[in-house]
């Protein structure tokens, strides 16, 4: 083939998969010089017919990824009738997989791109949770889907990460009596904010275990019951001022609390 070959890429989605495969093949011929005409989002036979006629007029070839069996068969049939070389990129692979898996394909165009989008949203949410963890940057409060507030050791960080894997952007803010909460916290929509409440006794136990794990004595102020009551009273004042929903996490696993938060998001 002396002139640059023209390849018509047909797809019921974006057409990137077909184009990449075609480019890989063409790189082995004609010094890799070629023209590609991509025709995406095909939904009917009329569009296929136009593409087939173009290929016939320009002595081109066709590469296609069509999950609809009817459109796939029509493309092969018309290409054969007009003596056009057509490469069915998805068909043979899907037929083989159907035999191996003993189940029918979903026949839903664009699933690869949906999966990619889902993956990137999850990564973005995880990065967000890390960046705006533990009140590190108050600018995250207005950008978050959910803002978690609570005293130390109420599972704010594990919850943020768990929800991030559900593609939810979470910022969390520690509540400490000696430190005024960021002003952004009082300007956020109360429905986006969730307080994490815990019983004084449970918190005392958790903090004592934490100190032991660090090799410290359990007599530190951090695990002092009087101090804990003081922190929780301050927490109650803050959540009352915001007017946000509060979840008691005293005897709940992270997954259980996260599911309550997810239900809250859906209800809103």
Q: What would you say this structure looks like, in words?
A:
With 268 residues, the chain is α/β, with parallel strands linked by helices. Helices cover 48% and strands 14% of the residues. The protein is built from ten helices and eight strands. The strands form two sheets. A four-stranded parallel β-sheet has the order 2-1-3-4, with helices on both faces. Strands 6-5-7-8 form a four-stranded parallel β-sheet, with helices on both faces. α7 (156-164) links the parallel β5 (146-150) and β6. It is elongated and about 85 Å long.
Structure summary:
48% of the residues lie in helices and 14% in strands.
Question: Which characteristics define this entry?
Answer:
14% strand, elongated, four-stranded parallel sheet, 268 residues, alpha/beta
